[in-house]
Design goal:
This protein is 35% helix and 25% strand. The radius of gyration is 15 Å and the shape is globular.
Length: 185
């Protein structure tokens, strides 16, 4: 069954890398995958989108995702600036980086799961140019919230992308997020 994921972030937060890692993890599980960005004239800090598709069968679609099953939000302020739920399927899942609990976030017709990916990045000292890296953390949370990929596959994708201490820190962040996820359903 085809599952579509839209990732909202800001330029420099790693939304595109998150989509690629998610696709890589699902590929390890024998699934068909796609991962691609949506780019305009983005720059660091500007809102960006990235997409991923996961399927048990070959994927013949090659368009932007308009009706995602899942939405990942890397920057908690974005849901107030733009409609992150646009086209989200009924009872779709939103995995959001925030310190807030799901019941504190008022988004209709969706299930919300939250994780403090920023806090986790700071805890494991996962910083790039002094900014916390939240994309790998959020993938651990996504694995738990949706069950679409196994945590082990996410960790393998991370460690194949970054070797040494960078891979270890990113994997540690994903594990913490998996364990720290708060589901609102």
């Amino acid at each position: 069954m085809l599952k579509e994921i839209r990732i909202h972030g800001r330029g420099g937060q790693g939304a595109v890398t998150a989509a690629q890692l998610l696709a890589h993890a699902a590929f390890f599980e024998g699934k068909w995958v796609q991962a691609f960005p949506y780019f305009g004239a983005e720059r660091r800090g500007a809102p960006v989108k990235a997409f991923a598709r996961i399927s048990d069968k070959q994927i013949l679609l090659h368009s932007e995702i308009y009706n995602p099953d899942y939405v990942i939000v890397l920057d908690p302020r974005l849901y107030k600036l733009l409609d992150v739920t646009e086209g989200l399927k009924k009872n779709g899942i939103i995995v959001m980086n925030t310190t807030r609990k799901p019941e504190e976030i008022k988004i209709e017709n969706s299930r919300i799961a939250t994780v403090d990916a920023t806090g986790i990045a700071l805890k494991v000292n996962l910083l790039v140019a002094g900014l916390p890296v939240v994309n790998t953390s959020i993938l651990g949370a996504f694995a738990k919230a949706t069950g679409e990929v196994k945590l082990e596959s996410v960790l393998k994708a991370i460690k194949e992308t970054w070797s040494g201490s960078a891979g270890e820190k990113n994997a540690e962040a994903a594990k913490f997020a998996y364990e720290s996820l708060v589901e609102g359903w």
